[in-house]
Amino acid sequence: MAKKKLKVLYEKEYSEEISTWKIERVIRRYELYPDQRKAEKTFRKRAQAREKPRKRITRLVKEGRPYFLFQIDTIVIYWDNLKRYILTAVDHGTKLGYARMYKNKSSRSAADFLYRLRYLVDQPIENLQTDNGSEFAWEFERASCIIFRIVA
Length: 152
Prior knowledge:
Elements lengths: L2 H12 L5 H11 L5 H16 L17 E11 L2 E10 L5 E6 L4 H15 L5 E3 L9 H13 L1
Parallel strand pairs: 1-4
Antiparallel strand pairs: 1-2, 2-3
Helix pairs in contact: 1-2, 4-5
């Protein structure tokens, strides 16, 4: 049950207010999760995320030079009963946009997109900004390492 539902039930039963945070603390303390396996998996994922902190764009001093910073994201569309993914890239400096449609949202598709983007601009791409979605992991990270080695 959600914390808000438990809050309403508690207030009806005992005629006193309780915060959802207090309910959350009790759930965590006594491990009152409906699906224990799912809770353990969530804890493991969060622990792994804490081990590898993400690079934040706030530390980057944005420059108006062409191809200094590309912002990349994925859009989902439904077209004739088909689900398609459009990867988009916009250059922060020149506002150049590039998009390509794929059948799936995989890191392989994102890596292919990155290689094509690099071929299109035919100049070094210094920085990439993504939303850290699943498509921007594994093969995409390897591809970005290869592209940045070509630049160096």
